[in-house]
Amino acid sequence: MIQQILLALVLTALNVIIHIEGAVRVVLPLCGLWKENPDPRVLARPIMTLIRLVSGLLVLHLVTMAMWAFAYRLFNVFPDFETCFYYSLMSHPTVGYGDVLPDRAWRLLGPIEGTVGILMLGLSTGILVIGVQRLYANRFSGSDARRPSDDG
Predict the structure, then answer these.
(1) Residue 116 near residue 91, CB atoms below 8 Å
(2) Closest residue by Cα to residue 112 from 79, 60, 77, 136
(3) CA dihedral angle for residue 96, residue 109, residue 82, residue 58, rounded to 10 degrees
(4) pLDDT at 149
(5) CA distance 139 to 102
(6) Residue 18: which of 74, 54, 66, 82 has the closest Cα?
(7) Contact present, 19 and 68 (Cβ < 8 Å)
(8) Which end of the chain offers a freer environment for a tag, N or C, measured as fewer CB atoms within 10 Å?
(9) How many Cβ atoms are within 10 Å of 106's Cβ, its own excluded?
(10) Tens of pLDDT, residues 5-14
């Protein structure tokens, strides 16, 4: 049990690092939302910007799920990487079909990965909310022609 918890804590720390560093250093800059004054082309195409943002965040989640899968494989929790990755894909968002289960000695990892996954999905949701707010706020901060009128 201690080995599972220690492994889960290490994986959780790596999960947070990958997710935050990836969002701040890669995803947000690629979307053009990280600059103080975003490129007007980014603001003119909010749907494309949000597609890039969501896709980038999804890639970060896939990377962290693969990291958990590599750990499962390293410790022989499952016989092959595909099963490890499938289990991680099911555990991370807490779907957990239950068609693939680890041995009793490793059964704590799935629920812990699920908890970490929900926290990271919450972080991604926060990043999306900030992105939408940024797009909306900048949409009306330019010229008077783009601002809604006060008198209707």
Answers:
(1) no
(2) 77
(3) 70
(4) 44
(5) 50
(6) 66
(7) no
(8) C
(9) 17
(10) 999 999 999 9
Residues 6+ positions from 46 with CB-CB distance below 8 Å: 135, 139
**Predicted TM-score of the model (pTM):** 0.82
DSSP 26: I
Residues with pLDDT less than 50, the chain: 143-152
Q: What is the pLDDT of residues 29-47, one digit of tens each?
A: 888 777 766 666 666 678 8
Q: Which residue has the tokens 């690629």?
A: 30
* Amino acid, single-letter form, for residue 144: D
**Annotated domain spans of the chain:** 2-140
Token couple for 80: 């092959």
The pLDDT of residue 59 is 97
The number of angstroms, rounded, from the C-alpha of 50 to the middle of its chain's C-alpha atoms is 14
Under a CB-based contact definition with an 8 Å cutoff, are residues 23 and 127 in contact? yes
Evaluate whether the domain defined by 2-140 bears CATH number 1.10.10.
no
